[in-house]
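Cross-check.
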Amino acid sequence: MAIVDFIFENEQDKLPFTEELEAVIKKAVETTLDTLEWEDVSCQVSVTITDNEKIREINSLYRKIDRETDVLSFPIIEFSPDGEALITEGDYDGDTLLLGDIMLSLEKAQAQSEEYEHSLIREVGFLSLHSALHLMGFDHIEEEDAKVMRALEKEIAEKMDLKR
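Predicted model, tokenized:
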């Protein structure tokens, strides 16, 4: 199993951030890393739980899209076009590889869970594995890349027993 040090920050007060939500985020990141065969790497992921207003500000600032979104990923590691991790000394804090930051709007996740008629746990788990894939160099901008990422999302969600 992946060795991940998580740093959580809950900067919103609209919905309770429960131990169950924290656990599904951890499981999503760890399952993603295990699926990608990064089991023996000691790494760190920072997770910020926020609301729609704050994630909209960050989305506008970094992506130039002035609307709320469900999750944002800020990877530290760069990857080559063929998916090889281009890890440098600066990607480490001591012996710990810094993977990056996940920012999740719990408010948006709640609304989406209601819209898709599944649990908040399922929605947060899916958004977290999606974001973890972004931290690991995957994207869905180009159609071929999207196919690869969607197949991995499905595989990881099944491993986690995240059902719609």
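The mean pLDDT is 96. The radius of gyration is 15 Å. Passed to J.P. for a second look.
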